[in-house]
């Protein structure tokens, strides 16, 4: 049996099934555990990028703005990459997978980054703390925890309307 044809057909079927994930069709029932799982998925990618950006920028003694820009950029890269790899494994072509990742994660990552970086900017001394300072790590980890708490209801609302991570569920 020629499996390449089967996989190509499967990828095509998944791509055409994307229309079933549209909000006017059948929006999934959004539960708090589902929203928390989607937020945790997003937080994992964001946290890796955010921490890596803060560590690199701080270690290279970059200014606060450059370090924050790097951290935010890497948070988006890692946040999108988790979804991108998952939907590619499900058989989507790269172009469709990118569209799904953007649709699934953009609002969640943006809210998370706004909250996370806003808190870090507001904590006195956090922006000037070094990697060896407890304030650096407590502000960073604390801000990510608050970002999770704020973003979970946003994701619940979006999933209930067939948006955000609801788009990804069509490919699981």
TrEMBL record:
Listed Pfam families: DUF4396 (PF14342)
Sequence segments annotated as region (Disordered): 1-28
Species of origin: [Kitasatospora] papulosa
Basic and acidic residues compositional bias, start-end: 1-25
Spans traversing the lipid bilayer: 38-62, 68-88, 100-123, 135-154
Keyword annotations of the record: Membrane, Transmembrane, Transmembrane helix
InterPro entries listed in its UniProt record: DUF4396
Name of the molecule in the record: DUF4396 domain-containing protein
Domain DUF4396: 31-163
Top-level taxon in the UniProt lineage: Bacteria
Transmembrane among keywords: yes
């Amino acid at each position: 049996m020629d499996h390449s044809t089967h996989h190509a057909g499967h990828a095509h079927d998944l791509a055409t099934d994307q229309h079933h994930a549209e909000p006017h069709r059948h929006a999934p029932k959004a539960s708090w555990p589902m929203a928390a799982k989607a937020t945790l998925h997003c937080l994992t990618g964001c946290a890796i990028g955010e921490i890596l950006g803060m560590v690199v920028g701080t270690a290279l003694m970059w200014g606060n703005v450059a370090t924050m820009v790097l951290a935010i950029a890497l948070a988006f890269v890692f946040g999108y990459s988790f979804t991108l790899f998952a939907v590619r494994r499900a058989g989507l072509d790269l172009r469709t997978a990118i569209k799904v990742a953007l649709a699934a994660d953009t609002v969640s990552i943006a809210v998370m980054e706004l909250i996370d970086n806003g808190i870090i900017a507001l904590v006195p001394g956090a922006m000037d703390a070094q990697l060896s300072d407890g304030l650096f790590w407590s502000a960073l980890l604390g801000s990510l925890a608050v970002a999770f708490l704020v973003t979970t209801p946003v994701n619940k609302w979006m999933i209930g309307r067939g948006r955000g991570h609801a788009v990804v569920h069509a490919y699981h």
